[in-house]
């Protein structure tokens, strides 16, 4: 299969804060790379390089000065890239001789963004589901290869390969890249993304739910007063809104939706973030007997599911590693089988059914069908989501045989991770020939943003250490 991207436009480099020269690029690629003459979509990217003033200016058509590209593969799925001046890669990697490329994946950021309104233009639920089947990591990699070939076609051969840096879901995408198109890669960095190559959503959640429970224990050990506070907030939500919940700026707040803010437990400072939200809501009840608009707005901003519909629609499918595997709302099914997530049960009697010292446990990085009932924009996508949840003919995301023969240098960070089980990461690392790993139990999933000085130091040490 030949991957073709057409460069539609590229702006003249502009100097931005941080002494970066930034250009904005638009590309056109096929929705389906196997049908290059079919429907086209647009992709957006920014490049960034350090501002330098050479003593002797080079001719504009001289490509010998071109620095090799470093493509950043964002986490998610469902989120666009930050501006280059806001990316930690600009701070730590541009001095290493790279030109950074921040390519928004198809469907996110500025690249044909997926939303309830844009999906209506595609058609009904069946057409929407067919469209979204092209938005997983396999096609993100095809887009990337098409863009690489487009950008480097006139470069010296030694600079046509590029490096990739994958965080979280971006690390999963990097493994797909290494599996099917390693010829385009010079090296790969992976942080928090060494996932299982042969485990579907149900197996993944059976492993990660216990890690979520560990973080709940850490939360309530640090803030024992929240055992009562969380239950009081939950009881008030039921009192004011029943099963339907209470109105918030973009949907409705129910007890199950309240419990999804445990997603933050996987990040540095996440426990404190959740506590402060509960503290604010509890303070409302103590002073006014209801939740204030300010608190409900803050809650809505804490995890705005509507702003990233791909996260809900394709989160479980991104774990479907090949044919015969379907999501079928695995997170809900596994959670219901555990005694500690009572709020997932249809016949749950509410927080008053719990013992005085028994906490109400938060969820982690899981997506649930009830989000399609409680989030304003997502409510129109229920049928589309169900079609995707039942689909089990996904193409393969990984080629273990290729990874076992891998020749691309790979440098990976394995964290004390609630989202990606470190034991699983070690198993996957053993399946990638030549990989070098740095393991730490004092950094969490978002360390590349929150503790970047440590992460980049260790990854670059792995790259630069040539002692056999």
Automatic annotation (TrEMBL):
Record's keyword annotation contains 4Fe-4S: no
SUPFAM superfamilies for the chain: alpha/beta-Hydrolases (SSF53474)
GO terms, biological process: proteolysis
Protein name as catalogued: Alpha/Beta hydrolase protein
GO molecular function: peptidase activity
InterPro entries in the record: AB_hydrolase_1, AB_hydrolase_fold, Peptidase_S33, Serine_prot/Carboxylest_S33
Family membership: Belongs to the peptidase S33 family.
AB hydrolase-1 domain residues: 70-207
Keyword terms of this UniProt record: Hydrolase
Record's keyword annotation contains Metal-binding: no
Pfam family, any one: Abhydrolase_1
């Amino acid at each position: 299969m030949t991957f073709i991207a057409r460069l539609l436009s590229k702006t003249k480099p502009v100097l931005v804060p941080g002494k970066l020269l930034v250009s904005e690029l638009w590309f056109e690629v096929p929705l389906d790379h196997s049908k290059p003459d079919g429907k086209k979509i647009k992709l957006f990217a920014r490049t960034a390089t350090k501002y330098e003033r050479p003593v002797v200016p080079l001719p504009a058509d001289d490509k010998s000065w071109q620095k090799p590209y470093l493509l950043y593969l964002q986490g998610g799925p469902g989120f666009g890239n930050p501006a280059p001046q806001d990316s930690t890669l600009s701070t730590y990697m541009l001095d290493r001789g790279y030109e950074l490329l921040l390519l928004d994946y198809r469907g996110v950021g500025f690249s044909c963004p997926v939303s309830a309104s844009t999906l209506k233009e595609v058609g009904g639920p069946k057409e929407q589901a067919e469209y979204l089947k092209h938005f997983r990591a396999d096609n993100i990699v095809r887009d990337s290869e098409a863009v690489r070939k487009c950008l480097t076609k006139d470069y010296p051969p030694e600079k046509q390969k590029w490096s990739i840096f994958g965080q979280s879901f971006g690390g999963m995408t990097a493994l797909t890249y290494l599996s099917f198109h390693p010829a385009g890669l010079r090296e790969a960095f992976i942080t928090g993304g060494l996932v299982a190559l042969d485990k579907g959503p149900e197996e993944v959640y059976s492993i990660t739910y216990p890690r979520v429970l560990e973080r709940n224990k850490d939360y309530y050990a640090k803030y024992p007063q929240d055992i009562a506070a969380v239950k009081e907030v939950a009881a008030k939500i039921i009192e004011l809104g029943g099963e339907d919940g209470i109105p918030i700026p973009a949907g409705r707040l129910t007890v199950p939706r309240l419990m999804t803010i445990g997603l933050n437990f996987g990040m540095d400072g996440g426990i404190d973030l959740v506590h402060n939200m509960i503290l604010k809501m509890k303070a409302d009840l103590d002073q006014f007997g209801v939740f204030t608009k300010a608190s409900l707005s803050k809650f809505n901003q804490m995890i705005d599911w509507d702003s990233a519909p791909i996260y809900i629609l394709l989160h479980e499918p991104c774990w479907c590693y090949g044919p015969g595997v379907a999501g079928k709302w695995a997170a809900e099914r596994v959670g219901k089988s555990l005694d500690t997530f009572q709020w997932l049960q249809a016949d749950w009697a509410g927080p008053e059914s719990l013992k005085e010292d028994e906490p109400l446990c938060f969820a982690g990085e899981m997506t649930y069908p009830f989000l399609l009932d409680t989030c304003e924009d997502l409510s129109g996508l229920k049928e589309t989501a169900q079609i995707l949840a039942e689909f089990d003919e996904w193409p393969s995301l990984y080629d273990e045989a290729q990874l076992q023969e891998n020749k691309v240098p790979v440098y990976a960070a394995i964290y004390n991770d609630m989202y990606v089980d470190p034991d699983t990461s070690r198993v996957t690392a053993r399946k990638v020939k030549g990989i070098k790993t740095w393991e730490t139990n004092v950094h969490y999933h978002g360390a590349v943003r929150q503790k970047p000085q440590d992460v980049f130091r260790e990854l670059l040490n792995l790259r630069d250490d040539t002692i056999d």
